[in-house]
Specification:
56% helix, alpha/beta, 319 residues, 2 domains, 6-stranded mixed sheet, globular
């Protein structure tokens, strides 16, 4: 189903909640500054271009009833993009959209409370942020409702960073223009309910996708770069890649017996073993080996420095 953040939170009356099993918000983390600011730049560039549209590929999750008119939507993949987009809506969207309160985090109570307070105090905070001398993070942290221990919540810390980057990336005189552009809903994605009758993905895949969501691995970063390459070559190919990388191809690398033996061995030897991290390492190794082979066929040798600077583009070469 094609959707926008507003169509889910307002039109469809969904409440999007990042479940406890998911990792913290990471795109605003200082360690991922380049990735976060790059994604933010793509969003802002779309809003600055008249009639431009941006498709954020697939968002996987599942819905469950809440006992009233709302349905709860729990993202399993796409949490980072949704959160950054929600923060951009909070900063730019015209008037006072109360439906922004339908987005929250369940990973920690501090994350949930911060999201609630951010929406409840939006109008006053936006006036404070508009002041040229405002130090964004200090201003937010000095609010009477902000609890100092929230600074130790990785999600809250990353959200504060992202809001600061948004503020730095938007000129005061273009806030209204960009807000009106955002209200036209040019940024969309495909929302997939993995437990719906249409898809009926297995419980095993559901568990594996949950496991993949716990941390931002190097392969997650590689996936983002590969997606950009494929988008530049063939949008249809990019869609197939985005769907298969977390479904069919994931199954190819998920060795049930081998994974069970590895877990048992780790328990016997009292060692830590993360199946999701191991799965990502093997997938990354496969894609890196493929790129190395393509590089060797093109150059006749493998120079490490040159290869690292070009390995993503190698996937985009046509036969």
């Amino acid at each position: 189903m094609k959707a926008t953040l507003k169509s889910l939170l307002y039109d469809s009356k969904f409440k999007i909640t990042i479940p406890q099993i998911q990792r913290d918000y990471a795109q605003g983390n200082e360690q991922h500054r380049e990735i976060g600011k790059q994604f933010l730049g793509v969003l802002l560039e779309t809003l600055r271009k008249p009639h431009a549209e941006l498709k954020l590929d697939f968002i996987y999750g599942y819905t469950s009833p809440t006992g009233n008119e709302q349905h709860l939507y729990s993202p399993l993949d796409g949490q980072q993009r949704l959160t950054t987009l929600w923060l951009l809506y909070w900063y730019l969207y015209p008037n006072n959209p109360d439906w922004l309160a339908n987005f929250s985090y369940d990973t920690r109570s501090s994350s949930r409370r911060f999201c609630e307070k951010l929406v409840a105090n939006r109008q006053a905070l936006r006036k404070e942020l508009a002041k040229p001398e405002a130090n964004r993070q200090e201003m937010l942290q000095n609010q009477p409702w902000f609890r100092q221990y929230w600074q130790h919540d990785p999600t809250v810390s990353a959200m504060l960073n992202m809001l600061s980057w948004i503020h730095d990336g938007v000129k005061t005189e273009e806030i209204d223009t960009l807000g009106e552009a955002l209200a036209q809903e040019p940024i969309a994605f495909v929302s997939i309910d993995i437990k719906s009758e249409e898809f009926r993905l297995t419980d095993e895949l559901y568990i594996k996708m949950n496991a993949r969501g716990k941390r931002l691995t190097p392969f997650e970063c590689d996936k983002a770069e590969l997606q950009k390459v494929f988008n530049g070559v063939d949008p249809q190919l990019a869609e197939e890649f985005a769907l298969n990388i977390d479904t069919k191809w994931l199954d190819l690398f998920w060795d049930k017996q081998g994974m069970a033996e590895a877990v048992s061995e780790a328990r016997r030897e009292k060692k830590d073993f993360d199946p999701a991290a191991d799965l990502d390492r093997r997938m990354q190794k496969f894609f890196t080996s493929y790129a190395e082979l393509q590089y060797y066929l093109r150059e006749g040798k493998v120079d490490t420095n040159t290869f690292e600077g070009n390995r993503y583009s190698l996937y985009g070469q046509k036969e």
